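## retry 2 of 3
previous attempt timed out at serialization; input unchanged, resubmitting
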Amino acid sequence: LKQSLKNIAVIGPNANDTEILLGNYNGEPAHVISPLEGIQNKFTNSNILYAKGCNVIDTPGYDKKTDYKEAIEMAQKAEVVIFVGGISPRLEGEDLKVKVPGFLGGDKTDLNLPTVQTELLMELKKLGKPIVLVLLNGSALSINWEQKELDAIVETWYGGEKGGEALADVLAGDYNPAGRLPVTFYKSVTDIPKFDDYSMQGRTYRYLTKPVLYPFGYGLSYTKFAYSNLKLSAAELNSSKPLTISLNVKNTGDFNGDEVVQLYIKQFGSAMPVKELKGFKRVNIKKGEQQTVTFKLDAKDITHYNEATKEMETIRGKLQILVGKSSGTAELTANITLK
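## retry succeeded, writing output
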């Protein structure tokens, strides 16, 4: 966001809530910087217009119309809307006394952003202003409408005592983000097995075959990177010598930045996972420059549990090397034989 913006609307139930930033099992810092405070401190030349907009969830007797009205009035005066929503450690956690739509005893019964927030975002969208959605949450969300309709989404999780300051640095472009998702964001709760189904089939990036909203390892940056020149030290991998994997990564964008290069493998066979993460490296590359990234892969790193022998064993056969920016898409691939 430009520092020259005259009016910025900060709206949302988590914008000025410092407790949410601390998550669960936390200490008590002397001062917690909320998203609202962080934005106010960063954009000192802008008029920051704040409205809560709505509660995190809808509850019986809650008059959301009044909150909606205030938020819409603030947004009408602004050039851009920053909506700080998500969920809360008061709703997701261990053995909580919670029973509301979407949440039960600290567990989630669906993956959606609470309806009261999505409905407000839909009203704000009608104003035609750019909207940045900032998420504070401790688990994946199925934000399908938000992904399609909003201008930007920033995942901040529960960011801790300086979460608001870190968010403001990213929004202002003073820090180029390179975080990657440690979980898969599914399109719907119906895309995954029931919680009491302990089979791995259809669960996590390793066994999921359905399309997802955001894959494991996904993340964006203010710059772009190109991968090329994948090289392997051998066409076979065995226990006597590790395999060296190298490739070139070039920053083709307009900003210096970090790239998280991810190494996956795919073993062929009906019982094998779709893919498995075997390494990653975060590298800082200046704009226009290129670096060579190298991985070492040992045969002992590729073992699977044998139910018959009750041991971890190497399953020999063909194997594909995949290098990319997430588990979703491989930029470069090569085939080897595991012996």
